[in-house]
Amino acid sequence: MSGPESISTMVDGDDRTCFVPKHQGLNVLPNSPLFSRILRLAHQSERIAIKDPTAGFAASYIQLLTDVLHLRNHLEKSLDYSILEHLGKGEEVFVTILGEGGYEFTVAFFAIMAVGAVVVPLSPSLSLEELRNRVKRCRSVATLTTSTRTALGRELEEYIAISSTSTFRCIDIGPHINRPPLLPREIIISSDLQLDSNGSSFVIFTSGTTGQPKGVVKRRAAVYNAALAVADNYQLGENDTVLHITPINHASGIGLALLPFLLSGGCVEFQIECSEAFDAGRLWERWREGGLTFFSGVPNIYNTMMEYFEKHISSLPAEQLKGYIAAANQFRGMLCGTSALAQQLQQKWTELRGGRMLLTRYGGTESSAVFKVPLHAADVPEGSVGEIVPGVDVKLSDGDKGEVFIKSPNMFSKYLFDPEATANAHDKYGYFKTGDLARREGKYYFILGRADVDIIKSGGHIIYTLDIEKEILGLDYVSEVMVVGVENGELGQRVAAAVVLTGNTTSLTLANLRKDLSPILPDYKLPTYLRIVGKGELRKTAMGKVLKKALAGELFPPHGHSDIQI
């Protein structure tokens, strides 16, 4: 068997595929819009698809497809016949990838798709026990490991073998890449039926900021169409190169910074993996080398990059400074999402980029893009995440304000093996309940926060924590902030702020914080609790979301703490 059997849920009994042999082979890719698109791009020129400086090479589109086929064929040979039978019937088979973003990951991603299986990216930062649990939850039959994670993959294979009768195995990606490239005409798209567009494509585990991580399953058609929508919105083309630094096991790592650029004929350059300790200086130097047109990050990254600019770059001699300013201005688009962007930070970047703003967005693992700011944004109101993406149906629970409910053609299909959670995630009309709060002004939307952690009910007032965080972040002595509600018998809840000070500030009192905020916030929104914390104490997910639910109880426990100012 040299490729998944094409399937369709509705096929006439006299369809030609009922009478002819299966069209499969070592150089035959499955019939799907995604592979057809990439093969057409491979025919057009020897353009570079992936740059991977860590691995030390760049790969063209034809090199990518050559390596995808080679790894796909090896994966098929490695799987038990019973598993291949399941694939041939179009049934769900899950294969995990263990490793950082890069060329090897990209080859593995498409190779799993080419065998007809479902891709499940795993973060190498997880513990061995957490990895075992993820593998068990998705019933993975194998894991493909990047060269840097081969030892971890073998350890995982042995660990699972001890506690299970599973035939789960670890397969190294490294030996199957950089093969002698085929000629474009040597690669064929199967004439069999298309892969089921409603079939599962990949699974992303949610960040777990407000509960246990869930396995979000995305359909093939939704993945392809969502990528094209991103490409259309940002007018991507063959001359575009995106610098990819976000974790590849998150939705935006695949659906925003990888697939849209590859399906547009552009180039994806993998660089430093995003983490709390990523090297801002190194990233600025890469920007200064040039050759980039897009960058995608989260507020935490943009904040750290701006802090580095102000501390280490802004005071350089004019000629040197000019090079760094040009580096920030080379990008046609700088994309920002995942969590709220402080307005002062937006203003700093807009000023540095000659009036061009960071392009905010809003979406979710389950929903793909919901609101967007266009590439050449001119009249988008301050703080807005833009307008509705074409084709998406949005309603707010209380008219022009409230929880965001959506229906989208690019929605997830289900939570993995959890039909109850899937059903409960929707209202009685079939809208997905995002758990996020927003307000609408005309055609523009503004995110107010999470319904379960970003609302404070105090003295009869409904307070949105992001409103307070935005103003606190506007103070020049504050680097990071988290605002939460602390239970209080008299008021219901009190406003509590945990603050990380900038490097040149040594102390802050609650009285001074309230004094500085009083001209811009009403009294009932002013913090009544303050705790100063060190850098790194406001723990975040890999995508920069503050773990509010866990931190609220830790930093502001019911019995109080000597570090809390009242």
TrEMBL record:
Domain AMP-binding enzyme C-terminal stretches: 468-545
InterPro entries: AMP-bd_C, AMP-bd_C_sf, AMP-binding_CS, AMP-dep_synth/lig_dom, ANL_N_sf
UniProt record, GO biological process: fatty acid metabolic process
Pfam families for the chain: AMP-binding, AMP-binding_C
Species the sequence originates in: Hyaloscypha bicolor E
Any GO molecular function: medium-chain fatty acid-CoA ligase activity
Record-linked PANTHER family: ACYL-COA SYNTHETASE, ACYL-COA SYNTHETASE FAMILY MEMBER 3
Protein name: Putative AMP-binding enzyme
Family: Belongs to the ATP-dependent AMP-binding enzyme family.
